[in-house]
Design goal:
Distance between the termini: 28 Å
InterPro entries: Peptidase_A24A_bac, Prepilin_IV_endopep_pep, Prepilin_pept_A24_N, Prepilin_peptidase/N-MTase
Shape: globular
Order of helices and strands: HHHHHHHHH
Function: Plays an essential role in type IV pili and type II pseudopili formation by proteolytically removing the leader sequence from substrate proteins and subsequently monomethylating the alpha-amino group of the newly exposed N-terminal phenylalanine.
Structural class: mainly alpha
Number of helices: 9
Number of domains: 2
Membrane topology: Multi-pass membrane protein
Pfam family, one: A24_N_bact
Strand content: under 5%
Organism: Izhakiella australiensis
């Protein structure tokens, strides 16, 4: 019993630290891609308050606890710290606990599952902020799915993963082209197309229709509720990546619980 408690506490701590790092990636990676003149990297400069530029110390960087202790404000200038920082750390923790519950001690399968969900979590927040799904993440996820099928034998077969990847890409590319020629508007960005292809590599061909259905239904319901509450027409441009991520995670969990 004591050994199990230590194991779960260690997993929780690692997941919270991972979530803290994901916050940094979500903030810096888009700036690195969109504004290379800023000369940012994931390691430099050190974490600092974006308002007063004070470098943060270790006590300011403890996942979840620092935000709670500081009541969501900078220790130095008292600027508000977004609730999204602890929220993402908590989501990272909850997903890790879910993976541990599903796969238990089989981390040969569990670690790729963590990679899948955590990458989708990062992509979700980047797309919300910037309407951007970076190739470095979507293509890495795609290749990881193909390698998982080939080396671990989990999920679709290697051939099935390749077929689903190609089918997912071609389907979204076709939908994007049809909409563009019909309405002269970009409906699906290149990032959405690559993300759907990556989901094919992880989930297989048969899972793609259900994934797309969940994503489309979720996006439609959200837009209708938002437009009703705000009393404004639905926006012509919105981030679809988060809904693809939601559909992908839901189908992935369902596949591995049956």
């Amino acid at each position: 019993m004591e050994h199990n408690l230590v194991w779960w506490l260690t997993l929780s701590l690692l997941a919270l630290c991972a979530g803290s790092f994901f916050n940094l990636v979500i903030y810096r990676l888009p700036l690195m891609l969109l504004h290379p003149q800023m000369k940012l990297s994931l390691t430099s400069p050190r974490s600092h308050c974006p308002q007063c530029n004070t470098t943060l110390t270790l006590r300011d960087l403890i996942p979840l606890l620092s935000w709670l202790a500081l009541r969501g404000r900078c220790r130095h200038c008292y600027a508000r710290i977004s609730w999204r920082y602890p929220a993402l750390e908590l989501l990272s923790l909850l997903y890790a606990l879910l993976v541990a519950a599903i796969f238990q001690s089989n981390w040969q399968i569990g670690l790729p599952a963590l990679l899948f969900g955590w990458t989708l979590l990062i992509l979700t927040f980047i797309d919300i902020d910037h309407h951007l799904l970076p190739d470095v993440l979507t293509l890495s996820l795609l290749w990881a799915g193909l390698l998982r099928a080939a080396l671990i034998g989990q999920g679709p077969s290697p051939a099935g993963a390749i077929v689903a990847t190609v089918a997912g890409y071609l389907l979204f590319r076709l939908l994007a082209d049809i909409w563009y020629y019909w309405r002269h508007e970009v409906a699906l960005g290149g990032g959405d197309i690559k993300l759907f292809a990556a989901l094919g590599a992880w989930l297989g061909l048969k899972a793609l229709p259900a994934t797309l259905m969940i994503a489309s239904a979720g996006a439609l319901i959200f837009l209708l509720i938002k437009s009703s509450v705000c009393r404004q027409p639905p926006p012509r441009r919105f981030a679809f990546g988060p809904w693809l991520a939601l559909g992908g995670v839901m189908i992935f969990v369902w596949q591995n619980c049956h």
